[in-house]
Amino acid sequence: MNTGYCYNFPAVRGTQAGRPFYVATCPLRIIPRIFMFDEDELPADLRAQRTLNKSRIPEMVNYLVNNPNDYIFSALTASVGSEVRFKENIDSTNVGTLSIPLEAKILINDGQHRRKAIEEAISECPELGHDNIAVLFFIDEGLLRSQQMFADLNKYAIRPSPSLSTLYDKREESSELARYLAMNVAPFKSFTELERSNISVNSGKLFTLSGIKQASRALLGKKPKDNYTSEDQEKAASYWTKVFENIDEWRMIYHKELSAVEARKDLIVVHGLGLHALGTLGNTLLKKYPENWESILKELKKIDWRKANPEFQKRSMLHGKLSKAQTNITLTANYLKLQLGIELTDDELLIEEKVN
To answer: Other CB atoms closer than 10 Å to residue 88's CB: what's the count?
Structure first.
């Protein structure tokens, strides 16, 4: 090991596959300086996999800057391309100080987006630089194992389902609204799948939590990070309650006169596509008919919600299956609007050409 200047980190030593690794805490301010992320220096086989998705960075930066007292970033994983020294504490064999030469190449195997977000967040909010992040260091002289490490680390990574993220996300206000509706408003109360974003064939649930969130965003004309007021909550609860009152099939399921399993086989209105289309319909109703939207909704009783309805076959299906594509959502919502006597916009009329 080079005996010159080193980075020194408090660390814990462990062993995996017969090789030592080290868990250390690093101040955020030094993360951009010591961790290499230069695609030109990476092996050719890794460059495509390691290209930064720059669209992800601003959201991560905002998360750090806007929550300086209430954020959490998981550990980075890195390969050190040189020999290191570990000096044990007097009273412990695996706790001590990890010394890494200043000239060592330290390549991030997992966390390149976090690294870039940390760099940009510190430039906006320098006090974040005094915080720490955990780093898992693997020793890989010459960085010969970095390709396989990258593949292994990402092989079994599974993102949580949108519904589970919605259930646990306490910062995004649209998630809070979805949870409120799922717990308090018919037809969602007792009929919402809270964890999965797909409903199993034999499930007694009708809607997913993520589906309620998407449909309610459409209803209120909101973007994912928009703020929601108590008035928005009341408006959404009132709308979905009135829709429930005017869809016989929903009420039959709610009162156990029709099984959810049979309904999902035959009806479009118990799927995410139908719910989203109803949200889109509601956005137009609340804007154009603020005084009498409730009476207009009564026309929903006349809708033939069967998947076999030729209009839904043309508008909501793709290759014989329900499609959640935005075009199909718009075409489905257009049909509902036409049935309720609502004039379509020029943009909606253009999309209508797809079914004529």
So the answer is: 12
Given a contact cutoff of 8 angstroms between Cβ atoms, the answer to whether 47 and 106 are in contact is no
Domain layout of the chain by residue ranges: 6-155, 162-355
Please report where in the chains the tokens 């935005």 appear, as a residue.
326
Give residue-wise pLDDT tens across range 85-141. Answer: 999 998 888 999 999 988 888 888 788 889 999 999 999 999 999 999 999 998 876
Contact 46, 54 (CB under 8 A): no
Left (φ > 0), alpha (ψ -120 to 50) or beta: where does 193 sit? Answer: beta
In the block, tokens 């069967």 appear at 306
Quick: pLDDT tens for 199-237.
888 898 999 999 999 999 999 999 877 899 999 999 999
Cα separation of 356 and 348, whole Å?
13
CA-nearest of 22, 128, 146 to 85 is 22
Token pair for residue 53?
């998705």
What stretches of the chain adopt beta strand conformation (E)? 6-16, 19-27, 76-80, 85-88, 95-101, 106-110, 132-139, 192-193, 207-208, 317-318, 321-322
Bridge partners of 99, per DSSP, are 8, 85
Alpha helices in 15-156 (DSSP H): 31-34, 44-50, 57-66, 112-124, 146-155
